[in-house]
Design goal:
Elements: E1 4-5, H1 8-15, E2 24-32, H2 43-53, E3 61-64, E4 74-77, E5 87-91, H3 98-110, E6 120-126, E7 139-146, H4 152-162, H5 184-224, E8 249-256, H6 257-264, H7 272-290, E9 300-306, E10 320-326, H8 334-354, H9 359-363, H10 368-380, E11 394-399, E12 407-408, E13 411-419, E14 428-435, E15 438-445, H11 453-469
Parallel strand pairs: 5-6, 9-11, 11-14
Antiparallel strand pairs: 1-4, 2-7, 2-13, 3-4, 6-7, 8-15, 9-10, 12-13, 14-15
Amino acid sequence: MHIKQLSGTNHIWFAIDTKNTPMHVMMVSIYDPSTVESGKIALDSVKRYMSSMVSGLPLCQKLQPSPIKPDFPFWVEDRNFNIDNHVQQVSFRGSSTKRNMMNLFERIAEQPLDQARPLWQMTLVTGLGRIPGLPKDAFALVSKLHHSQFDGTSGMKLQARLHSASPDFAWSPAGTSREPGRDVPGKMLLQAIGNRYRWTNMSTRVAASMMPGLVKGAAKRILSRSKVKEGPEVPRTRFSNSIQTNERVYDSITWPLAEIKSIKNKVEGATVNDATLAIFAGAVRKYMEHHGELPETSLVIAMPRSEHKESNTESSGNQASAMRAAIGSDIVDPLDRLRFIRDNTRQAKEKATSRSGSPLDVVDVVPTYTLGKVFKAINYFKLVEKIPVPFSGMVLTNVPGPRVPLYFMGAKMLSNYGLGFLIDGMGLLCTVTSYCDELYLGVQSTPELLPDIEFFFECVADSYGECINA
């Protein structure tokens, strides 16, 4: 049996996993089954197909504590793996509207994963053919994964493995095949003992690698004696507050990718991500202005940044940090805002690249069990509402998807949405994904922080129109 110990980078997501802030991500894909020979997809066939696929993917692994504490747990094969615990079906009922479909996706997102089992779940949602614009017998697959095991990059790789580039579908229903768990405790004990020596050396190496950057930063602050703060000033928003519920609100909008490219082409050097961020910033400006909450200075957004390295051969796990940039929410003209965003995101990338040492290295030597208690204390005492914030409670993540049509068991994928997670101080998440020639912008929050998500998307549509017509 293969065992693998979690790194601190991956275990941190368990340390901050709470009832109100579960650390899972979701992919929601909608399909047209008319390309399937039978014209439909049944739950039993999905279970058989997934059973035949899991042995070659990291989907049979569950957590097992280390025999030496404190130490990170291990991924081990679940000898009692049962596909029935991971693949389920729900039927779409009620009014045949997109809003009602999104409500169903929200309810699925609110349910945590069972940490005693492999950390994934697939929900087959049938009955979507009643929604205007979707084909007869349309269905969705809602794939839920824990962020400790999959980030955006590895999640897309998993999705690609489960799909094909052709509706011609054939597979061998061989079922799962796993080695018996021989001497797993002994292997874990040996690795845990080795970690004691490894952590001592790593602590010294990390400290040495980060010291030049720390010294340089301290010297710069001492010598400058300037009243100007380094980096953008950060206004607080309603989204900078604590997450006090596990309930979620979510919606999305779809645009032709060619139109997003036409927006970015209006400003030399701008990217598709810059154009999308400019649309989102305009929507936030309109929304907060409507509620009398728009700060005089620009809001600051956080954006995940991939930390995948060529020297790192891991195909799963979370390997990302974050950078931040002002979004020009105080700028009225959409093209001036796009220019501002182009310059600020460029500077943020250069700043992130030039840092000495990675924060991810620190997490690997800091006891994340202790960090987990700190996060829980922050949540309990609502400390995030009383301390300075590094960004304005908003995050935008962009994970490019496949540019060619994909098929699941012969059914053609029509659209591909992404949902993430919320934490204290990060109450508004914008997820941007793409598929073929379309771009999808999704927004996720809680009912307390975003009680009028329909109005927010009116602001998104208005901002998009302004950018197109500028």
